[in-house]
Automatic annotation (TrEMBL):
Origin: domain of life: Bacteria
Pfam families from the UniProt entry: Methyltransf_23 (PF13489)
Alphabetical keyword list: Methyltransferase, Transferase
GO terms (BP aspect): methylation
Organism encoding this protein: Saccharopolyspora endophytica
A single MF term (Gene Ontology): methyltransferase activity
Claim: Transmembrane helix is one of the keywords in the record: no
InterPro entries per record: SAM-dependent_MTases_sf
Protein's recorded name: Methyltransferase domain-containing protein
SUPFAM superfamilies assigned: S-adenosyl-L-methionine-dependent methyltransferases
Length: 219
């Protein structure tokens, strides 16, 4: 899946030739770094985790890319920054934001980017996670997913299956994740002011299919 997502970003860079790219929630750079390849542009990285940000920054330095980085959340970043970017991208990170924060961050992105490339899973919204149809489908997906991993199984279990998937069933802690459908992402982008919204299925993942949503900002 990550190869497909990096490939989709690489295509955007080839087509648009951006002078600047801002990656919001870049993690350890697993998507960003392979996408950059030989592309030389100014790169900004927003990532709240110090350890993950350090890995991305080290990768950018290895590639000799001119870069800036901010160890903050997307919410804190947009509250304090005014610069503009040719491309703002975010893969599997904005799902961490609640609805109000999604709106605020997307609205900033629209006003500060020529183009947004958003990558997210298409997750059907469910009223009751104990609904047997949804529940048994979820269990089957998790089982299939865990079978796909060898050495990485614990990492995926602790980093994704527990917080994102099983977190939906917690009766005591608030959700760590606010996944929505791609239809809903389209609506949110439209409401934030983006135009020319295009959606493409980029990879089939055991959890849900991943989509690239490209949209034109107003900057
Ligand atoms: C599943 S990882 C994806 C990382 C990277 N974009 C990729 O495609 O490999 C989600 C990332 O979002 C970051 N994140 C979580 N909450 C965030 C927030 N409020 N603002 C920005 N990034 C956030 C996490 O620290 C993590 O690095």
């Amino acid at each position: 899946m990550y190869e497909a997502v990096s490939g989709a970003l690489r295509e955007v860079y080839r087509r648009e030739r951006p002078g600047s790219v801002l990656d919001v929630g870049a993690g350890d750079g697993l998507t960003l770094l392979p996408a950059l390849g030989a592309q030389r542009c100014r790169v900004g990285v927003v990532e709240p985790s110090a350890a993950l940000l350090a890995e991305t920054v080290a990768g950018l330095e290895r590639l000799g890319v001119v870069h800036e980085s901010w160890q903050v959340t997307a919410q804190d970043f947009v509250a304090a920054h005014a610069g503009r970017w040719d491309v703002v991208q975010s893969s599997f990170a904005l799902q961490s934001l609640c609805e109000a924060d999604k709106r605020e961050v997307l609205s900033w992105m629209c006003g500060h980017a020529s183009r947004l490339v958003l990558v997210e899973f298409d997750v059907p919204e469910v009223v009751d996670v104990w609904d047997p149809v949804w529940f048994f489908d979820c269990v089957a997906r998790v089982e299939r997913g865990l079978r796909e991993y060898g050495a990485d199984r614990d990492l995926v279990g602790v980093g994704f299956v527990l917080p994102v998937v099983l977190g939906k069933f917690s009766a005591t802690s608030p959700p760590a994740n606010h996944e929505v459908s791609i239809v809903r992402w389209r609506e949110l982008l439209g409401e934030a002011g983006f135009g020319g919204i295009r959606v493409r299925r980029v990879a089939d993942y055991w959890w849900r299919p991943a989509y690239v949503v490209e949209a034109i900002g107003s900057s």
